[in-house]
Model the fold of this input.
Amino acid sequence: MAAPKRGRSASAQSKPGRSLALILIAIVALTGGMFLSGNKTPRLGIDLAGGTSITLKAKADQGSAVNKANMDTAVDIMNRRVNGLGVSEAEVQTQGTDNIIVNIPKGTNSKEAQQQVGTTAKLYFRPVLASQPSVGATQSPSPSASPSGSSKPSTSPSASSSPKEKASSSSGSSTASPKASATSQGRAVTDALKAGSTPTPSTSASGSPKASATPSATPSASSGAGAAAAKLQAQYAALDCTKPAERAKVGGAAKPGEPTIACGQIHKVWYKYVLGPAAVDGTEVKKAQAVFDTQGASGWQVQMTFSSSGAKKFADITGELAKNQSPQNEFGIVLDGEVVSSPFVQSAITGGQAEISGSFTQQDAQSLANMLSYGALPLSFQEQSVTTVTAALGGEQLHAGLLAGAIGLALVVIYLVAYYRGLSVVAMASLVVSAILTYVIMSLLGPAIGFALNLPAVCGAIVAIGITADSFIVYFERIRDEIREGRSLRPAVERAWPRARRTVLVSDFVSFLAAAVLFIVTVGKVQGFAFTLGLTTLLDVVVVFLFTKPLMTLLARRKFFANGHKWSGLDPQSLGAKPPLRRTRRPAGPAAGPVDPKEA
Done:
């Protein structure tokens, strides 16, 4: 039984090069990936790279009061929005009872995050009654009006010249509906207003009044609806969506159950709309994501999944819209009073899943999916101030931190050289490997998961120097203990490893557990410290197993270490080693020696 065990041990001792080759390949692959990705340095947080600080003041919305619960909900949604855009290390926190401070570091999508972070995101799906490019005051779409101005094209998805998006289920498509005239658009506006004014209107899937071509209204209700229709048509005719001041006045104040006018920018062209009552609320969207269509020519698209109730409402409204001509076969996705997309439908979309396709860029698709996914804020917010944060103060603190880290590292090296002598080469080489892996992985994690290096993260990396050095010291002391017992270096290296390995794993597990708990229960910059500490703890295990132990096995075969040179750090005499352990046979009485024939 003992012989096979020695054979496996000898095999393990004879092939430490495999482990060293493995970690070398990993370093080369990760470094190559870092250079190929173009990210040669870790991404920096706002305290090191600078960024933007935004102060938002909460305002009570319809049915929502400014209280702690609503403020906490708003902070959570804002956090998810900026993270959904890939802007990590953004800080969102309350200040006082009605203010929220948002700190966004420089980097990819930071400007878009600044635009979206305070957006209330009241989201509705409304049927489009009329629409056209906004080129200033135009003739209203009354029943007697003739078409004026240009019409927004509505074509099949294969027509690349069309700016319109298409909403569909995952199954096929059909040809586009013809364009409705201004007369039918005007009639649709009037009918929708009358339907909204009747005492007992038919309702849409959302419970809101639904446009009907044959409303049953009292004379007084009809006259009121006619006046409202005339007012809305006049506003629509005079609306110029190319002017920011006019865009700010429309859409946002309308109730979900009322028709309204709104503006929307579709592929850099401003359109104006008359929209019917909301058919589906944005809260019915369970999930939305931007995906690239690799099978067809649709390019980037947004896939939506509705809740069970939302799926029924969406199927009902798309079934009704599919019967109409363009643009009344479209529904407007209205975010805070602005139409962000107005896809057309050609058949009822059932099953609770839909996709919006068109001439989306990746940024357009991700922005729309982000808004659909994370929902509306419970309160409205007014931007109080936007300030640019410089990295000057953070740079000074970083310089001081790096200086402290360099001093600490120098003290560790001096201690290793003075106490462990030749073994300090193993420790310093392991520290260099650990530093390379940490730097490369931090550089790759920036674009991968949005990791940004801030001052607390730098502190975590400095603390990791001590954790890593401690693992080497544990192993070296175990080897010295075996030499003190009288063993030579090669068996001492192998016998010391199981005990040292167990101690290192327990120690690193405790450190990683502390880092994980700290990451979960904290927010903001403290998470950067916890993340870095956990990452370097994992790398410590990798380096000790795949580099330190195999390197020690190779050095044990060298005469300088194997013979216990006084500068090797493993001199048996200086360690107070016992005489070598040898097996001896004790004499077994008179029969032990040769027998004299004469005596026999």
In short: The longest helix spans residues 489-521. The radius of gyration is 36 Å. Confidence is low (pLDDT under 50) at residues 1-13, 137-163, 170-183, 196-219.
